[in-house]
């Protein structure tokens, strides 16, 4: 029985979409278990280039059942728009099931996200304004709307009335806006209900049956370990757990079902949004790395914002792998570093008190931490065509082995380009 979680060990954008797309070929189920449309997974295959925000990355394989689990923040418009785009671009109708317990992102969540970012101004957290923080706040305040609620109009009214009571006080008195009534939200929700009808089901039983029958299941994480609200760079974190440990909860599988945790790690660092980023580069060095990573889309797939760039960070990545419980690592974007004659890596954090940390510190200590760099020789050539580890230049092999020894997890896959076939496995 193989249940594999594919998760990020950095700040997100590690290339999880590509890895999920590749591994989907031999899988029966691909499950999104957390987050919503606030991050994009870029996939390049024979149909073209796609940025999926809401749909699982298995949608390009007719053999795969794609599942949107109960732990997600379901943005119906985004999901339907993506489905439409896939069909328009020649992808066969994907198989999709949405948990009846998945909760719905409401227009009011997006509105609150925007209003709050506006109110915070310079103190804002760099939200993607997809309504994710207000959505999860509502969920845990027990004010959310489950997909199943859409099919019971009386219940839907009651739930919305309850949810809008406190929000209207904030709308009027904190944000200076008009209050909202359920009747302004109901028609769109009922319309969504009809469009969602073919997909909504009890995905928990479906996945348990699949697990019992020994089917291969992929659980697809969004963002990365350092954005986890409990263990990451809080409050510059996201609002749902990005960890493999949460995958069983958010998908609806027993915790012991997940036997493989494939942590995706990027050969250098990048980060979208605000928050401490110790190995961050400035100026021309950053521009050069961003430009070289052009194919790697060093502009946020959701926001189009240029990503912040940095050297590989062994402290953060070791911690990220530890948080994920990584059983193996896929190292991506190695090809991007081919222009450097020497490659710096961050191997420690110099803290305010003069000590050097090799364990990832709490956010309060991160802001003033300085990177301690070590140089490794570069390989200065294009490796994007290489398909076996032994054929990589000696310096590239050395770089991979160095990272492996620093993060304490075996690297089993090295990716050297955005396309499906641009990778090698290491036994
Ligand atoms: P995800 O959210 O983790 O799936 O990552 P994103 O899709 O946001 O960003 C990863 C980017 O890197 C995408 O543009 C991918 O097409 C690209 N990519 C993935 N693997 C590689 C690789 O090995 N080399 C290069 N150059 N690009 C890659």
Q: How are the SSEs ordered, and which strands pair?
A:
Layout: E1 3-8, H1 16-24, E2 29-32, E3 41-45, E4 48-52, E5 65-68, E6 73-74, H2 76-88, E7 95-99, E8 103-104, H3 107-120, H4 132-140, H5 153-173, H6 182-196, E9 200-201, H7 203-212, E10 217-224, H8 244-251, E11 260-266, E12 269-271, H9 283-292, E13 308-310, E14 312-313, H10 314-324, E15 328-332, E16 342-350, E17 356-357, H11 363-366, E18 370-377, H12 394-407, E19 411-415, E20 423-425
Parallel strand pairs: 1-10, 1-11, 2-5, 2-10, 5-7, 6-8, 7-9, 11-15, 14-16, 15-19
Antiparallel strand pairs: 3-4, 12-13, 16-17, 16-18, 19-20
Helix pairs in contact: 3-4, 5-6
Question: How would you sum up this structure, described in words?
Answer:
- The chain has 427 residues and is of the alpha/beta class.
- The chain has 2 domains: 1-99 and 203-427, Adenylosuccinate Synthetase, Chain A, domain 3 (Alpha-Beta Complex); 103-196, Adenylosuccinate Synthetase, subunit A, domain 2.
- The protein has 12 helices and 20 strands.
- A hairpin with a 2-residue loop joins strand 3 and strand 4 (48-52).
- Guanosine-5'-diphosphate binds next to helix 1 and strand 3.
- Guanosine-5'-diphosphate binds at residues 8, 12-18, 39-42, 44, 295-297, 301, 332-333, 335-336, 415-418.
